[in-house]
Amino acid sequence: MTSLPEPLSAKATDSFAYYTIKDRLPVILSKIADTVYRLKNTVREQHGEEGTKELKDIVGGISKLRNELQTDKSILTLEDDRSDVTTWNKYLEEQTTLHGYPPSWFKSAWLYVECYMYRRVQEAVEKCNVLKSLDVFEEQKQKAFLNSQGAILILLNYSMKVIKDLEKEEELDVEKLFRQFIQVALWGNKCDLSISAGFENSQTSCPLDQVETLKDHILIDDLKPLWTCLRASAPGRVDIVLDNAGFELVTDLCLAEILLSTKLASSIHFHAKAFPWFVSDVTKQDFDWTLQTLGRSNSIAMNFFVQRWKGRLSNKSWNLQVHDYWTLPFDYSEMKMRCSDLHEELSKSSLIVFKGDLNYRKLVGDRNWDTTTPFAESLHGFHPAPLCTLRALKADVQTGLAEGQAKAVKEKDAEWMVNGNWAVISFCDKTVQ
């Protein structure tokens, strides 16, 4: 059997991993410290001296972490009381034994150390008492959502018209609708606060126009086999492994609604993160806040969908699930071995939709694959059910391209792998029983 390619790492100084560890992550940590520090007056009013002390401890923990990262210190064990601590610390032992030296920021796998950074941020919060539920990214996520209101309203007004036409049994091209809403959800993934180092990155253009203007920027378009698979199993269960809060989450909710309203799906299972992750990833709190905020609007379309979606959550045609595996450092080929319950749950699905760049990196192991490696091969045995990935490229890993395609797109755009302007809809219908 051919050996696997090496994991991406900041050891390669000409890589996006190196740029991320050296430049992007320190900026994200500084922004977290600044954001938390600005809460001092509110925290003092609500929690007194205990809250003030905890706030200082969080800022101190973030500053210490930033220093460790910038000086390439060894990865440390976690010391809070969250249920995943043993798993993280055991993995650190495994990596130390495997390589013969402790992992460090610039020498170890990028996927591992970047995930570890966000877990260490959460550690600073977990050690608190009165601030234990603090989301250090909440302000940025909510601001990005509110600044995307124009685009959200356009999308919801259009979606409401589609739903009402379906209810009137108007003759609509269901495949065309499916393709359209898949692409809206795909390009919703351009709005990512971790890639912009936590600075504002909201959706301001019309999402429907964007689908047309960006068609030529889809490098892999597996919509045809994806549609065939979905029709063959309809109406079945569809799982959506969420990525970003804000505008992207709304595009995912609209896609889920269309799948149910066209009877392409009987139920939707959303998968969210267990704690704040990669700046803008969806937690249960973000999901709930989004519905609450839409419900406070005076927009007819927003209120229409909030009532509809609350009903779907109530009757279980929508389900929101949270699992620790999504915030662990493992790629998905390890899921069956390390977390058989989640793997078994996903195997009940007719289709799993993985949103975004980090999910893609975990699907393909974040390895230095040749870009022409077949997508199914790069999954390295992860086939719980038919799956697809909707991803705007923001990391220098990609599989499934045609011979010469990477060279051609690089001539058009030297930063094509990392700037979020190019995308893939990759599908694999292989399953392992």
Automatic annotation (TrEMBL):
GO terms for biological process: intracellular phosphate ion homeostasis; methylation. InterPro entries: ARMT-1-like_metal-bd_sf (IPR036075), ARMT1 (IPR039763), ARMT1-like_metal-bd (IPR002791). The keyword Chloroplast does not apply. It catalyses: beta-D-fructose 1-phosphate + H2O = D-fructose + phosphate; L-glutamyl-[protein] + S-adenosyl-L-methionine = [protein]-L-glutamate 5-O-methyl ester + S-adenosyl-L-homocysteine; beta-D-fructose 6-phosphate = dihydroxyacetone + D-glyceraldehyde 3-phosphate. GO terms for molecular function: metal ion binding; protein carboxyl O-methyltransferase activity; pyrophosphatase activity. It comes from the Eukaryota. Its EC number is 2.1.1.-, 3.1.3.-. The keyword Signal does not apply. Its cofactor is Mn(2+); Ni(2+). Keywords: Hydrolase, Manganese, Metal-binding, Methyltransferase, Nickel, Transferase. It holds the Pfam family ARMT1-like_dom. Residues 20-407 form the Damage-control phosphatase ARMT1-like metal-binding domain. Metal-dependent phosphatase that shows phosphatase activity against several substrates, including fructose-1-phosphate and fructose-6-phosphate. Its preference for fructose-1-phosphate, a strong glycating agent that causes DNA damage rather than a canonical yeast metabolite, suggests a damage-control function in hexose phosphate metabolism. Has also been shown to have O-methyltransferase activity that methylates glutamate residues of target proteins to form gamma-glutamyl methyl ester residues. Possibly methylates PCNA, suggesting it is involved in the DNA damage response. Belongs to the damage-control phosphatase family. Sugar phosphate phosphatase III subfamily. Subfamily III proteins have a conserved RTxK motif about 40-50 residues from the C-terminus; the threonine may be replaced by serine or cysteine. This is Sugar phosphate phosphatase. It comes from Sinanodonta woodiana (Chinese pond mussel). The lineage of its organism: Eukaryota, Metazoa, Spiralia, Lophotrochozoa, Mollusca.
